[in-house]
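TA notes, week 10

Several of you asked for a full example with nothing omitted. So below is the full record: C-alpha coordinates for the whole chain, then the designed sequence directly under it. When grading your own attempts, check the secondary structure regions first.
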Protein backbone atom coordinates (compact mmCIF):
# COMPACT_ATOMS: atom_id res chain seq x y z
CA UNK A 1 0.00 0.00 0.00
CA UNK A 2 2.92 2.37 0.64
CA UNK A 3 3.67 2.19 -3.10
CA UNK A 4 0.26 3.77 -3.75
CA UNK A 5 1.19 6.75 -1.54
CA UNK A 6 4.85 7.50 -2.24
CA UNK A 7 5.01 7.27 -6.02
CA UNK A 8 5.20 9.28 -9.24
CA UNK A 9 2.31 8.64 -11.61
CA UNK A 10 2.29 9.72 -15.28
CA UNK A 11 -0.95 8.42 -16.82
CA UNK A 12 -0.34 7.44 -20.44
CA UNK A 13 -3.91 7.51 -21.73
CA UNK A 14 -4.22 9.05 -25.21
CA UNK A 15 -5.80 12.46 -24.74
CA UNK A 16 -9.55 12.29 -25.32
CA UNK A 17 -11.27 14.43 -27.93
CA UNK A 18 -13.26 16.01 -25.11
CA UNK A 19 -10.08 17.14 -23.35
CA UNK A 20 -8.61 18.41 -26.62
CA UNK A 21 -11.79 20.38 -27.29
CA UNK A 22 -11.77 21.86 -23.77
CA UNK A 23 -8.15 22.91 -24.19
CA UNK A 24 -9.03 24.70 -27.41
CA UNK A 25 -12.04 26.37 -25.84
CA UNK A 26 -10.07 27.50 -22.79
CA UNK A 27 -7.27 28.86 -24.96
CA UNK A 28 -9.74 30.90 -26.96
CA UNK A 29 -11.81 32.17 -24.02
CA UNK A 30 -10.48 31.91 -20.46
CA UNK A 31 -6.87 32.75 -21.25
CA UNK A 32 -7.53 35.97 -23.21
CA UNK A 33 -10.34 37.02 -20.85
CA UNK A 34 -8.06 36.67 -17.80
CA UNK A 35 -5.35 38.63 -19.62
CA UNK A 36 -7.81 41.51 -20.01
CA UNK A 37 -9.51 41.35 -16.60
CA UNK A 38 -6.58 40.75 -14.26
CA UNK A 39 -5.28 44.31 -14.42
CA UNK A 40 -6.54 46.22 -11.37
CA UNK A 41 -8.70 45.97 -8.26
CA UNK A 42 -11.79 47.17 -10.06
CA UNK A 43 -11.54 44.39 -12.63
CA UNK A 44 -11.06 41.82 -9.85
CA UNK A 45 -14.25 43.03 -8.17
CA UNK A 46 -16.14 42.90 -11.48
CA UNK A 47 -14.98 39.34 -12.09
CA UNK A 48 -16.07 38.38 -8.58
CA UNK A 49 -19.56 39.68 -9.23
CA UNK A 50 -19.87 37.97 -12.59
CA UNK A 51 -18.83 34.57 -11.16
CA UNK A 52 -21.13 35.01 -8.15
CA UNK A 53 -24.02 35.88 -10.49
CA UNK A 54 -23.36 32.79 -12.57
CA UNK A 55 -23.64 30.68 -9.43
CA UNK A 56 -27.15 32.03 -8.84
CA UNK A 57 -28.49 31.26 -12.32
CA UNK A 58 -30.33 27.90 -12.23
CA UNK A 59 -28.75 25.38 -14.57
CA UNK A 60 -25.66 27.47 -15.35
CA UNK A 61 -23.49 26.28 -12.47
CA UNK A 62 -22.20 23.99 -11.11
CA UNK A 63 -23.00 21.16 -13.52
CA UNK A 64 -24.84 17.90 -12.98
CA UNK A 65 -25.31 16.32 -9.58
CA UNK A 66 -26.77 12.85 -8.95
CA UNK A 67 -30.23 12.59 -7.37
CA UNK A 68 -28.80 11.18 -4.13
CA UNK A 69 -26.37 14.09 -3.63
CA UNK A 70 -27.32 16.61 -0.94
CA UNK A 71 -26.13 20.08 0.02
CA UNK A 72 -26.57 21.55 3.51
CA UNK A 73 -25.47 25.10 4.33
CA UNK A 74 -23.21 25.64 7.34
CA UNK A 75 -22.21 28.77 9.28
CA UNK A 76 -18.61 28.70 10.50
CA UNK A 77 -17.92 31.84 12.47
CA UNK A 78 -16.10 34.30 10.21
CA UNK A 79 -17.22 32.46 7.06
CA UNK A 80 -19.72 29.92 5.82
CA UNK A 81 -19.61 26.66 3.95
CA UNK A 82 -21.66 23.69 2.86
CA UNK A 83 -21.81 20.01 3.62
CA UNK A 84 -21.72 17.99 0.41
CA UNK A 85 -22.80 14.36 0.41
CA UNK A 86 -22.41 12.64 -2.93
CA UNK A 87 -24.27 9.49 -1.97
CA UNK A 88 -26.10 7.73 0.83
CA UNK A 89 -24.47 5.51 3.43
CA UNK A 90 -21.36 7.64 3.97
CA UNK A 91 -19.13 7.29 7.02
CA UNK A 92 -20.23 10.31 9.07
CA UNK A 93 -17.28 9.88 11.41
CA UNK A 94 -14.92 10.92 8.61
CA UNK A 95 -14.71 14.12 6.59
CA UNK A 96 -12.90 15.96 3.81
CA UNK A 97 -12.33 19.67 4.43
CA UNK A 98 -12.30 21.18 0.93
CA UNK A 99 -10.81 24.55 -0.03
CA UNK A 100 -11.90 25.75 -3.47
CA UNK A 101 -9.66 27.54 -5.94
CA UNK A 102 -10.13 30.79 -7.78
CA UNK A 103 -6.96 32.83 -7.32
CA UNK A 104 -8.10 34.02 -3.86
CA UNK A 105 -10.71 36.30 -5.39
CA UNK A 106 -13.34 34.28 -7.27
CA UNK A 107 -15.36 31.05 -7.02
CA UNK A 108 -17.01 29.40 -4.04
CA UNK A 109 -18.18 26.00 -2.83
CA UNK A 110 -21.03 26.31 -5.35
CA UNK A 111 -18.74 26.56 -8.38
CA UNK A 112 -16.73 23.55 -7.21
CA UNK A 113 -19.54 21.08 -6.60
CA UNK A 114 -18.47 18.99 -9.65
CA UNK A 115 -15.39 18.21 -7.56
CA UNK A 116 -16.86 18.04 -4.06
CA UNK A 117 -19.73 15.65 -4.68
CA UNK A 118 -17.42 13.25 -6.49
CA UNK A 119 -14.82 13.59 -3.75
CA UNK A 120 -17.50 12.66 -1.24
CA UNK A 121 -18.49 9.60 -3.27
CA UNK A 122 -14.98 8.19 -3.83
CA UNK A 123 -13.84 8.80 -0.24
CA UNK A 124 -17.09 7.53 1.29
CA UNK A 125 -17.41 10.52 3.57
CA UNK A 126 -19.08 13.95 3.64
CA UNK A 127 -17.18 16.97 2.35
CA UNK A 128 -17.21 20.30 4.17
CA UNK A 129 -16.56 22.89 1.45
CA UNK A 130 -15.37 26.13 3.01
CA UNK A 131 -16.39 29.56 1.72
CA UNK A 132 -13.31 31.23 3.21
CA UNK A 133 -12.70 34.99 3.00
CA UNK A 134 -10.96 36.17 -0.18
CA UNK A 135 -9.29 39.26 -1.64
CA UNK A 136 -9.15 41.99 -2.54
CA UNK A 137 -11.08 42.98 0.60
CA UNK A 138 -9.46 40.25 2.71
CA UNK A 139 -5.90 38.96 2.99
CA UNK A 140 -4.10 35.64 2.72
CA UNK A 141 -3.92 35.65 6.51
CA UNK A 142 -7.73 35.92 6.70
CA UNK A 143 -8.14 32.95 4.37
CA UNK A 144 -5.67 30.92 6.42
CA UNK A 145 -7.39 31.88 9.68
CA UNK A 146 -10.72 30.64 8.30
CA UNK A 147 -9.19 27.36 7.17
CA UNK A 148 -7.42 26.64 10.44
CA UNK A 149 -10.57 27.61 12.39
CA UNK A 150 -12.65 25.21 10.26
CA UNK A 151 -10.16 22.41 10.96
CA UNK A 152 -10.13 23.04 14.72
CA UNK A 153 -13.92 23.30 14.57
CA UNK A 154 -14.07 19.78 13.14
CA UNK A 155 -11.84 18.57 15.97
CA UNK A 156 -14.13 20.29 18.48
CA UNK A 157 -17.11 18.47 16.95
CA UNK A 158 -15.44 15.15 17.72
CA UNK A 159 -13.83 14.26 14.40
CA UNK A 160 -10.58 12.44 15.02
CA UNK A 161 -7.63 13.97 13.16
CA UNK A 162 -6.86 10.65 11.49
CA UNK A 163 -10.36 10.76 9.99
CA UNK A 164 -9.92 14.20 8.39
CA UNK A 165 -8.47 14.82 4.91
CA UNK A 166 -7.60 18.34 3.74
CA UNK A 167 -8.02 19.01 0.04
CA UNK A 168 -8.08 21.93 -2.35
CA UNK A 169 -7.38 23.09 -5.88
CA UNK A 170 -5.27 25.94 -7.29
CA UNK A 171 -5.40 28.73 -4.66
CA UNK A 172 -7.22 26.19 -2.49
CA UNK A 173 -4.25 23.87 -2.98
CA UNK A 174 -2.03 26.72 -1.77
CA UNK A 175 -4.33 27.13 1.23
CA UNK A 176 -4.27 23.37 1.88
CA UNK A 177 -0.47 23.38 2.11
CA UNK A 178 -0.38 26.56 4.20
CA UNK A 179 -2.99 25.08 6.55
CA UNK A 180 -1.00 21.87 6.97
CA UNK A 181 2.12 23.90 7.82
CA UNK A 182 0.17 26.10 10.25
CA UNK A 183 -1.41 23.09 11.96
CA UNK A 184 2.03 21.56 12.44
CA UNK A 185 3.57 24.82 13.68
CA UNK A 186 0.75 25.31 16.21
CA UNK A 187 1.19 21.78 17.58
CA UNK A 188 -2.30 20.75 16.54
CA UNK A 189 -2.93 17.08 15.71
CA UNK A 190 -2.35 16.46 12.01
CA UNK A 191 -5.04 15.24 9.61
CA UNK A 192 -4.50 11.96 7.80
CA UNK A 193 -3.56 13.45 4.42
CA UNK A 194 -3.58 16.43 2.09
CA UNK A 195 -4.74 16.47 -1.54
CA UNK A 196 -3.72 19.31 -3.85
CA UNK A 197 -5.11 19.66 -7.37
CA UNK A 198 -2.99 21.99 -9.54
CA UNK A 199 -1.72 23.88 -6.47
CA UNK A 200 -0.44 27.46 -6.73
CA UNK A 201 2.58 27.25 -4.45
CA UNK A 202 5.01 30.05 -5.36
CA UNK A 203 3.85 33.64 -4.82
CA UNK A 204 7.38 35.02 -4.76
CA UNK A 205 8.80 37.27 -7.48
CA UNK A 206 9.88 34.30 -9.60
CA UNK A 207 9.28 34.77 -13.32
CA UNK A 208 7.45 31.71 -14.60
CA UNK A 209 8.91 30.41 -17.85
CA UNK A 210 7.83 26.76 -18.07
CA UNK A 211 4.68 26.22 -20.13
CA UNK A 212 4.11 29.96 -20.68
CA UNK A 213 2.74 29.23 -24.15
CA UNK A 214 1.62 25.63 -23.63
CA UNK A 215 -0.86 26.30 -20.79
CA UNK A 216 -4.31 26.55 -22.41
CA UNK A 217 -5.90 28.39 -19.50
CA UNK A 218 -3.54 30.40 -17.29
CA UNK A 219 -1.38 33.35 -18.31
CA UNK A 220 2.00 33.28 -16.58
CA UNK A 221 2.15 37.08 -16.60
CA UNK A 222 -1.27 37.43 -15.00
CA UNK A 223 -0.39 34.85 -12.33
CA UNK A 224 2.73 36.87 -11.53
CA UNK A 225 0.61 40.04 -11.33
CA UNK A 226 -1.96 38.39 -9.07
CA UNK A 227 0.76 37.08 -6.76
CA UNK A 228 2.09 40.62 -6.34
CA UNK A 229 -1.36 41.85 -5.31
CA UNK A 230 -1.72 39.31 -2.52
CA UNK A 231 1.87 39.56 -1.23
CA UNK A 232 2.25 43.36 -1.10
CA UNK A 233 3.94 44.21 2.19
CA UNK A 234 4.63 40.55 2.98
CA UNK A 235 7.71 38.36 2.82
CA UNK A 236 6.83 36.41 -0.30
CA UNK A 237 9.25 33.63 0.68
CA UNK A 238 7.43 32.98 3.97
CA UNK A 239 6.21 29.35 3.69
CA UNK A 240 2.68 30.43 4.66
CA UNK A 241 2.78 32.84 1.70
CA UNK A 242 4.70 30.60 -0.72
CA UNK A 243 4.45 26.98 0.48
CA UNK A 244 7.10 25.96 -2.06
CA UNK A 245 9.63 27.23 0.51
CA UNK A 246 8.16 25.21 3.40
CA UNK A 247 9.78 22.66 5.66
CA UNK A 248 7.45 19.67 5.43
CA UNK A 249 8.83 17.66 8.31
CA UNK A 250 5.97 15.88 10.16
CA UNK A 251 3.40 16.78 7.48
CA UNK A 252 1.02 13.90 6.62
CA UNK A 253 1.06 12.16 3.23
CA UNK A 254 0.35 14.36 0.23
CA UNK A 255 -1.24 13.78 -3.15
CA UNK A 256 -0.34 16.42 -5.73
CA UNK A 257 -2.00 16.39 -9.15
CA UNK A 258 -1.07 18.62 -12.08
CA UNK A 259 -1.24 18.74 -15.86
CA UNK A 260 1.89 18.41 -17.97
CA UNK A 261 1.28 21.72 -19.79
CA UNK A 262 0.28 23.80 -16.76
CA UNK A 263 2.17 26.99 -15.99
CA UNK A 264 1.99 25.92 -12.31
CA UNK A 265 3.35 22.42 -12.96
CA UNK A 266 6.96 23.04 -11.93
CA UNK A 267 6.13 24.66 -8.60
CA UNK A 268 3.77 21.79 -7.75
CA UNK A 269 6.57 19.35 -8.55
CA UNK A 270 9.01 21.36 -6.42
CA UNK A 271 6.70 20.95 -3.42
CA UNK A 272 6.57 17.20 -4.04
CA UNK A 273 10.36 16.96 -4.15
CA UNK A 274 10.84 19.18 -1.12
CA UNK A 275 8.27 17.29 0.95
CA UNK A 276 9.87 13.96 0.06
CA UNK A 277 13.27 15.30 1.08
CA UNK A 278 11.70 16.12 4.46
CA UNK A 279 10.47 12.54 4.87
CA UNK A 280 6.89 12.94 3.63
CA UNK A 281 5.26 10.30 1.43
CA UNK A 282 4.02 12.04 -1.72
CA UNK A 283 1.89 10.72 -4.57
CA UNK A 284 2.77 13.07 -7.46
CA UNK A 285 0.61 12.75 -10.58
CA UNK A 286 1.29 14.58 -13.85
CA UNK A 287 -1.42 14.11 -16.45
CA UNK A 288 -0.66 14.50 -20.14
CA UNK A 289 -1.95 17.81 -21.57
CA UNK A 290 -4.63 18.24 -18.93
CA UNK A 291 -5.65 21.85 -18.15
CA UNK A 292 -5.55 23.58 -14.79
CA UNK A 293 -7.77 21.82 -12.20
CA UNK A 294 -9.08 19.45 -14.86
CA UNK A 295 -11.02 17.51 -12.20
CA UNK A 296 -13.71 20.21 -12.34
CA UNK A 297 -14.44 19.14 -15.95
CA UNK A 298 -15.53 15.63 -14.90
CA UNK A 299 -19.02 16.08 -16.39
CA UNK A 300 -17.52 16.09 -19.89
CA UNK A 301 -13.84 14.99 -19.80
CA UNK A 302 -13.08 11.26 -19.26
CA UNK A 303 -9.62 11.93 -17.79
CA UNK A 304 -11.22 14.16 -15.17
CA UNK A 305 -13.40 11.28 -14.06
CA UNK A 306 -10.39 8.94 -13.97
CA UNK A 307 -8.51 11.19 -11.55
CA UNK A 308 -11.15 10.62 -8.88
CA UNK A 309 -10.39 6.90 -8.98
CA UNK A 310 -6.75 7.78 -8.36
CA UNK A 311 -7.79 9.95 -5.41
CA UNK A 312 -9.80 7.01 -4.10
CA UNK A 313 -6.73 4.77 -4.37
CA UNK A 314 -4.63 7.28 -2.44
CA UNK A 315 -7.17 7.80 0.35
CA UNK A 316 -7.75 4.06 0.74
CA UNK A 317 -3.99 3.48 0.90
CA UNK A 318 -3.64 6.12 3.61
CA UNK A 319 -6.47 4.52 5.58
CA UNK A 320 -4.93 1.06 5.21
CA UNK A 321 -1.50 1.97 6.61
CA UNK A 322 -0.38 0.09 9.69
CA UNK A 323 -0.56 2.25 12.85
CA UNK A 324 3.19 2.12 13.35
CA UNK A 325 3.78 3.15 9.72
CA UNK A 326 1.37 6.05 10.08
CA UNK A 327 3.28 7.27 13.12
CA UNK A 328 6.68 6.90 11.47
Amino acid sequence: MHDEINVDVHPTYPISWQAAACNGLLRGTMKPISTVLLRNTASLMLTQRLIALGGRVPGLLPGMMPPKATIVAEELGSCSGEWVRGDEGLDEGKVVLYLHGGGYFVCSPVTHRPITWRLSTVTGRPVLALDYRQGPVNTLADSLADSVAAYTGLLDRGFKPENIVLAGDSAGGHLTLATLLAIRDRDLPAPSAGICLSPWTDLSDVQRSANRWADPMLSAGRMDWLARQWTAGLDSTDPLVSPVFGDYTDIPPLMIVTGSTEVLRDEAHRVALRARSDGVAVRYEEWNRMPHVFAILADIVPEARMVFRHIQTFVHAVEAREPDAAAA
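The chain has eleven helices and nine strands. Use that as a sanity check on your answer.
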